[in-house]
């Protein structure tokens, strides 16, 4: 097995070819400034797989279907997975103090069903979905009959596996308000890991999905699309937003990250806050059977 010296970088041509491959498969842009980073990440895969060099690894990738495990390992290396519960407190203050009370009052008045459907798009290890579950459990406590479904999706099979395992370390848990932590999580004995109680787990499901493809699901009340489009270019952002719009209805809410860079692309939405939009025009859903 040949291990590449740690200073060796992909050539400019290899960088271009890798960048195109990543863009075509995931929509993520790799700029020329990321040469060192990309080289380091690919080198890690060379070490694990025993493949001799950057060129051979590229050829291996293009010869494999994107569903192959190696593709997943590669994408996990070249994408960012940073996430934690209660990330961006303004989002959660809105959700807990404005959105949920509005839902419950509408349900009391009989103008909406006791149902809430949320999509955590590009959910990484599920921390965002778990935050929604935690807030919903708190905000809807004592009100019988609510059906809450939170669907988390990510391109990374490994990330989805971790999301399904629902085991959060101290770093993920550091912003969870103490009363909610005590009420809705159990600490695994003699470990620094927390697991959500079944009340939360029952609301969540996770699966692999590429945002460049339509999601076959019924419309959602809320879509969280955070800290992912920041890595996309205008063309792939547009494609993702089209897919997102297909699973929204007029009145559905879109929650964005602080730096997604899509404010010019949100024609069919009414801006409520810089990161919060209400859908006004929804596209028709993708054909085929929707998931439940
Ligand atoms: C920084 S994390 C964001 C996690 C979470 N939304 C948050 O804000 O805390 C970005 C995630 O986007 C995922 N991702 C990147 N490209 C994707 C694509 N084309 N489709 C679905 N997920 C993608 C990555 O696998 C990664 O887990």
TrEMBL record:
Protein name: protein-glutamate O-methyltransferase
PANTHER family hit by this protein: CHEMOTAXIS PROTEIN METHYLTRANSFERASE
Organism: Blastopirellula sediminis
Molecular function as annotated in GO: protein-glutamate O-methyltransferase activity
Domain of life according to the entry: Bacteria
Chain ranges of the CheR-type methyltransferase domain: 10-282
InterPro entries registered for this protein in UniProt: Bact_Chemotaxis_MeTrfase (IPR050903), CheR_C (IPR022642), CheR_MeTrfase (IPR000780), CheR_N (IPR022641), CheR_N_sf (IPR036804), SAM-dependent_MTases_sf (IPR029063)
Pfam families: CheR (PF01739), CheR_N (PF03705)
Keywords, ordered alphabetically: Methyltransferase, S-adenosyl-L-methionine, Transferase
Lineage, top ranks: Bacteria, Pseudomonadati, Planctomycetota, Planctomycetia, Pirellulales
UniProt record, GO biological process: methylation
Reactions catalysed: L-glutamyl-[protein] + S-adenosyl-L-methionine = [protein]-L-glutamate 5-O-methyl ester + S-adenosyl-L-homocysteine
EC numbers on record: 2.1.1.80
PROSITE patterns xref list: CHER (PS50123)
């Amino acid at each position: 097995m040949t291990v590449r010296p740690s200073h060796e970088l992909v050539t400019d041509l290899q960088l271009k070819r890798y960048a195109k491959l990543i863009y075509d498969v995931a929509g993520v842009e790799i700029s020329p400034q990321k040469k060192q980073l990309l080289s380091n990440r690919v080198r890690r895969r060379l070490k694990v797989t025993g493949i001799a060099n950057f060129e051979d690894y590229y050829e291996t990738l293009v010869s494999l279907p994107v569903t192959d495990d190696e593709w997943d390992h590669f994408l996990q290396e070249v994408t960012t997975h940073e996430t934690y519960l209660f990330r961006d407190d303004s989002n959660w203050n809105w959700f807990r103090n404005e959105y949920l009370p509005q839902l419950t009052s509408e349900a009391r008045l009989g103008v909406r069903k006791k149902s809430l459907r949320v999509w955590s798009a590009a959910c990484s290890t599920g921390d965002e979905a778990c935050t929604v579950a935690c807030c919903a459990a708190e905000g809807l406590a004592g009100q019988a009959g609510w059906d809450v479904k939170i669907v988390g999706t990510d391109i990374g099979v490994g990330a989805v596996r971790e999301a399904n395992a629902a085991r959060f370390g101290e770093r993920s848990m550091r912003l969870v308000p103490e009363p909610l932590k005590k009420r809705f999580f159990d600490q695994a004995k003699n470990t620094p890991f927390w697991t959500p109680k079944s009340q939360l787990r029952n609301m969540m499901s996770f699966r692999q999905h590429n945002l460049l493809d339509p999601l076959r699901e019924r419309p959602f009340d809320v879509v969280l699309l955070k800290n992912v489009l920041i890595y996309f270019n205008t063309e792939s952002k547009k494609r993702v937003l089209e897919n997102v719009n297909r699973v929204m209805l007029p009145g559905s809410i879109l929650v964005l990250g602080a730096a997604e860079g899509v404010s010019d692309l949100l024609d069919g939405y009414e801006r409520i806050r810089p990161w919060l939009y209400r859908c006004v025009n929804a596209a028709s859903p993708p054909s085929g059977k929707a998931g439940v």
